[in-house]
Amino acid sequence: MKSYRKELWVNTNKRREYINITPDVNKCLVESGIKEGFVLVNAMHITASVFINDDEPGLHHDFEIWLEKLAPEKPHNQYKHNGYEDNGDAHLKRQVMGREVLVAITDGKLDFGTWEQIFYGEYDGMRKKRVLVKIIGE
C-alpha cells in the first residue's frame, strides 16, 4: 500500500468564493502513481469547506443566497464568537457545507458520478489557506 500527501494553497480574491479544485486533485493523483484506492481532500481551516457538486454558476449563486439566509454575515454582533474577527458566519457556513470529501480511485481516475466535481468553499477569504490531499492505495 502506498501513501501520498500534498497541500494545495488557495488565496481567494473575495471573502466568499467557490473554486473547482478537481484539476489540482487529478494532478496529485497522477503524481501519486496510485491506481486503486481512495483520496481524502479536506479544508485545513475552520472557515472553509470541501464538497462535491456540479460546476454550474447558477448553483454556486444559489449556495451563496441559501447560506447567507442560514448564517448572514451581518450584523456582526449577532454572533457571540465575533470579537477578534468578524467571521462567526463563516464558521457556521463551513459546518453546513462540510469539511472533507472521500473519493474512490478506480483505474487511476477519480470515480465520480455524472457532473461531480470537487470544490473548495471559502467563507472568510482574501488570505492564504491550505487544502490537504491524502491518497492511499496501490
What does this protein structure show overall?
- The chain has helices at residues 22-32, 57-70, 88-97, and strands spanning 2-11, 17-20, 37-43, 48-53, 100-106, 109-110, 117-122, 128-137.
- It is built from three helices and eight strands.
- The mean pLDDT is 97.
- The chain has one domain (2-137): Jelly Rolls, CATH 2.60.120.460.
- It has 138 residues and is α+β, with helices and mostly antiparallel strands.
- The strands form two sheets. Strands 1-8-3-5-6 form a five-stranded antiparallel beta sheet, with helices on one face. The protein has a three-stranded antiparallel beta sheet with strand order 2-7-4.
- Helices cover 25% and strands 38% of the residues.
How many domains make up the coordinates? Answer: 1
Shape: elongated
How far the N terminus sits from the C terminus, by CA atoms, comes to 5 Å
- Beta percentage is 35-45%
Top keywords for this entry?
alpha+beta, 138 residues, single chain, 3 helices, three-stranded antiparallel β-sheet, Jelly Rolls, five-stranded antiparallel β-sheet
